[in-house]
Design a protein that fits this description.
With 558 residues, this protein is of the alpha/beta class. It is 26% helix and 24% strand.
């Protein structure tokens, strides 16, 4: 059993387990999830959430939520609230909520200490010039002409940066490390920049100089007592700088340690917050929670469950190598989860009336059908049955080939699901030749659940009784982009949007019971796919979103 548990661990869990066994930091485990509140979380963040919170849960530790709110030009309380909602929906609980802004004064004091120690200076060059002077990975950088400014002048200018007298971009505070280091991040990285025109969502206009991520992040970990600072692979090259900053002021043996894993990339989507923001702002999607978006709120609205997302992340695992995961794996996870969760119902997308000629005119009976054959605990439900029903237009063909096994005049028998066997006798057309009614007869001795109901026929079709029928709107969602990797294309990613990523069907017919369904309830529309009730749905205007088709038809379709 112990061996099975070890095999199920990822490499970071193995590191944490070893640290605990060796008693490092007293065997304590403390992680953090540190999002910047500048957008909505996407499924890539869900992978990080599962790691940060999962490690803490597995080893009896705590995971705190810390908002990296060091750039007021992009951050908003709206994003803070949405991030908390998404984490809770995924089923995780944080120990405490912190903000990088909680430490602005401490970070400022540390920056002044570095200035006094001769390890930081004010640079008044433009961002473009500073970037040029950094050199390349194979050629050393050029020192700034301001690098050897007197300490007192650096300190006075630094304080001036926060006075409101300095314009944005006029000066920055840089760490004085090594302009010839092979690690580009060591070439006098910027620690502070000036932002005067945007109030901070928590501190207002109190601060005009704000710390950069590389300076704020490691120190925040240290202040909070983080043991394992887990992030994605692009921060591997930042790790030496993370350690260097902490080494400049730490006065104990304690150090948070940074570990990296591969980020989540998925086909047929974009994971860049910048690109997602463009989609939202340009009206190319209906908002951050558009069900085609890879955001957690978008997936939730589409009908994805926390369990499906977490199972998917568990299956793809954590490694030290970047890869792109086929979105079909995510879709398979949600199908597997909804198979036992979603009740089966009939939904008629292109309705045509079916009239049973030999059924009594005023009769109506109640039939019983299983809610979910894959889940016995789901029980049964009652549906009404009468002389006139709605069926799919595609389940009837006037001149059908021998391979067509559904309704056709003079053709073979067909079972109405959970009801009777019928045989088509003909159809009625309007003046334009459009079929308005299909007629049939039924065999009263073939009711499902009776001895005669065991008679086998080659086809079963879905139906909804006209007396209990309700029109609803159905939204069929598909992949947002036409190509596997829109971010890698030479074309503008917006030109690669799938024009068929949303199809709206009005006048879809369902049983009236579904009009009372609540948002995010799950259903399998038989032969159509898995659906959920949209948040904008009302009893007067029910709306259903397709979560995923019953099978992966994308490859075949394309």
């Amino acid at each position: 059993m112990e061996e099975e548990v070890k095999k199920s661990q990822n490499f970071i869990e193995e590191i944490v387990e070893k640290d605990v066994q060796e008693g490092k930091l007293g065997g304590r485990v403390q992680t953090r999830f540190p999002p910047e509140p500048n957008g909505y979380l996407h499924i890539g963040h869900a992978k990080a959430i599962c790691m940060d919170f999962g490690v803490a849960e597995k080893f009896g530790g705590v995971c705190n939520l810390r908002f990296d709110d060091t750039n007021p030009t992009k951050e908003d309380v709206e994003y803070v609230d949405s991030i908390q909602e998404d984490i809770c929906w995924l089923g995780f609980k944080w120990g405490n909520i912190y903000y990088a802004s909680d430490y602005f004064q401490q970070l400022w004091d540390l920056a002044e200490k570095l200035i006094l120690d001769g390890k930081a200076y004010i640079d008044e060059q433009s961002a473009e010039v500073i970037a040029q002077q950094k050199g390349t990975p194979t050629t050393p950088g050029v020192e700034s002409p301001f690098r050897n400014r007197p300490v007192e002048e650096n300190l006075a200018l630094f304080r001036k940066m926060n006075s409101g007298e300095v314009k944005d971009g006029a000066m920055v505070l840089r760490a004085k490390i090594d302009m010839s280091s092979p690690n580009m991040h060591f070439r006098d990285p910027i620690m502070y920049r000036v932002i005067t025109d945007h109030p901070h969502h928590r501190t207002g206009y109190k601060w005009k100089a704000y710390p950069m991520y590389d300076f704020a992040h490691g120190q925040s970990d240290y202040f909070e007592g983080v043991t394992h600072s887990i992030c994605t692979l692009e921060f591997v090259v930042h790790r030496p700088l993370y350690d260097w900053f902490i080494d400049q002021f730490a006065d104990t043996d304690y150090r948070p340690r940074q570990y990296e894993f591969n980020r989540l990339n998925i086909t047929y989507t974009v994971m860049s917050k910048r690109k997602m923001l463009q989609l939202v702002q340009e009206g190319l999607v209906a908002g951050w929670d558009d069900p085609r978006m890879p955001t957690i709120c978008g997936l939730r609205r589409r009908g994805y469950t926390p369990e499906a997302i977490k199972n998917f992340i568990s299956r793809i695992g954590y490694t030290k190598y970047e890869a792109t995961i086929d979105v079909s794996m995510l879709e398979a996870s949600v199908r597997e989860d909804l198979k036992t969760r979603a009740n089966r119902v009939c939904a008629i997308f292109e309705p045509v009336k079916l009239v049973i000629d030999n059924y009594p005119d005023d009769a109506q009976e109640t039939l019983t059908t299983e809610n979910n054959p894959d889940n016995e605990s789901a029980g049964t439900r009652d549906v009404t049955f009468s002389k006139e029903l709605y069926i799919e237009r595609g389940d009837f063909m006037e001149d059908a080939p021998s391979s067509f096994f559904r309704l056709t005049p003079g053709g073979r028998e067909v079972r109405l699901k959970s009801a009777y066997i019928v045989k088509c006798t003909g159809c009625v057309k309007d003046s334009d030749g459009n079929i308005t009614e299909v007629h049939c007869t039924y065999d009263p001795d073939t009711k499902s659940g009776t001895e005669g109901g065991n008679r086998k026929v080659k086809s079963t079709i879905n139906w909804v009784d006209t007396k209990s029928a309700r029109e609803v709107e159905v939204r069929l969602y598909d992949r947002l982009f036409m190509v596997e990797n829109p971010s890698a294309s030479e074309q503008d990613f917006r030109e690669l949007l799938n024009p068929d990523s949303l199809k709206v069907i009005k006048g879809c017919i369902v049983d009236n019971q579904l009009a009372e369904a609540k948002p995010l309830e799950h259903f399998q529309f038989l032969k159509q796919g898995y659906f959920t009730v949209d948040k904008d749905s009302t009893p007067d205007k029910p709306i259903f979103n397709r979560t995923v088709s019953l099978k992966d038809n994308w490859a075949k379709k394309n």
